[in-house]
Amino acid sequence: MTTSSLELASLLCSRLCHDMLSPVGALSNGLELLADEKDPEMRQRCFELLDQSARISADKLKFFRLAFGAAGGFGEMVPVSEARVLVDGLVANNARIVLNWALSSDSLPKPAIKVLLNFALFGMEALPRGGTLDIAAEFRDGTSEIVVRAAGQRIAFDRDIGRALEGSLPPGDLSSRTAPAAMIQQLAGEQGGELQYVLAEDALVLGAVLPGA
Record's InterPro entries (predicted)? Predict the structure, then answer.
């Protein structure tokens, strides 16, 4: 699969706009309600909803900045704690997902961090009814290994995302939904690495091995 950088960037922007539309729209609606509301209790409720929407918007922007963007401010190695804070922030908005971490390294190369974040995103989206999200990562002898497992009822996983991860999705089938998978597949290829996934009725396992520091 070969996709131009411009096309991939455009699709990633579309994905970002799609994911930000709901919390930003909630902010706009909350401000409209607040302008018309006179009851003190209802105004307090509006303020709470505005605070929640603002926090969700900020959490998503921070996440996508590192998952999709150039992530300025970091060197070649990124503290794993940065990625953990970002994933924890998104999962905190979904009480039905239980998140477990197994991190044996303090930092990972930036491409590996991007893969980890996007794997986590796929795992969260695969659990519409909730479940368990397990994330493990290790950097040893110059190689990053990442495993993300989403387990729950009725796993939701678009097979085209899997094809994009494998590099077998035709460029004409690429969409804003599959663009993140195509992006990390290209990153893995540049590192001489490989992405894999295994899908079952009650679990999705995503794995990556990325050589090179």
Answer: ChpT_C, HATPase_C_sf
